[in-house]
Amino acid sequence: MIRAALAAATQRLAEISDTPRLDAELLMAHALGVARDDLLMRHIEASAPDGFEALVARRLAHEPVAYITGSRGFWSIDLAVGPGVLIPRPDSEALIEAAIAHFGAGAPAAVLDLGTGPGTLLLAALDHWPEARGLGVDRSAVALGYARDNAARLGMADRVAWRLGDWAGGIEERFDLILCNPPYIGTEEAIGEDVRRFEPASALFAGADGLDDYRRVIPQLRGLLAPGGCAVLEIGWTQAGAVSRLALDQGFSLRVRNDLGGRPRAVLLT
Fold first, then answer.
1. pTM of model > 0.85
2. In which order are the strands placed within the sheet that holds 225-234?
């Protein structure tokens, strides 16, 4: 019975996960080939599928749920993800919220996403502003492969271009909105086993203090912004002061926005 299998899996997953029940439900829904809501409303009394235990075993080995199921929801869209790409986090939605607050009733016409990964921030922005067009840049060909596939599946392929590159190098266009979630973890910082073992280090670590990529990206932003535009950068929750100083040194005005947990998460530069 699915109800009993979920209860048992939740108990086992509690040893390695902060969200064991959610993990169990997502894995069960994936095993059944249905949405989680559909699982809970229509299938909870059915027999558990044979493949469920194998999925639980992978999770118990710390493999992220998003890699096991191959997808992760973000903002208003679902994104395909897998090994080699950073898994979208709910905290990153603070960047989209900050951009929406900045533009108000208006909208950006051109959006740039530096370090786009599987297209997370760019495709969320284009979904919110259906007339906007965008460019996503990443130094990982694997990540750009996921981004292209996600854009096509979401019906946005004709509104977005992808470029293999190192931050803003070689970009001559101007953009109303620049989004960027750079690596910001210090090389000696402790991180969860799931992240350390499975997600790409190149998307996580940025020198001893976690600020190396901000030092590269922030000086590039002024020349990329169209008049009235803004750049929104994700930060680690302890980095608001350090990143703000880097931005102020480049002549930017800034605002800091908190994430769902009330921690500083996004810096908006104008």
1. yes
2. 160-164, 133-138, 110-114, 175-180, 225-234, 264-269, 254-258
**For residues 260 and 90, is the Cβ–Cβ distance under 8 A?**
yes
What are phi and psi for residue 142, nearest 5 degrees?
-60, -50
What's the CATH number where 40 sits?
Answer: 1.10.8
- Buried b / exposed e over 27-53, threshold 16 CB at 10 Å, is bbbbbbeeebeebeeebeeeebbeebe
In a domain, 36, yes or no: yes
Closest CA to 120 of 186, 187, 66: 66
3-state secondary structure of 176: strand
- Domain match, 194 and 115 both: yes
Quick one: average pLDDT of 122-130? 98
Q: Give the domain range for residue 55.
A: 2-61
Q: Give the pLDDT band (50/70/90) at residue 40.
A: confident
**Is there a single domain that holds both residue 242 and residue 187?**
yes
Question: How far is 109 from 146, CA to CA, in rounded Å?
Answer: 24
Give me the count of residues in the chain.
270
CA angle 137, 189, 200 (to 5 degrees): 35
Same domain, 124 and 54: no
Averaged pLDDT of the chain: 96
Q: Encoding tokens for residue 98?
A: 């900050």
Instruction: State the CATH number of the domain containing residue 213.
Output: 3.40.50.150
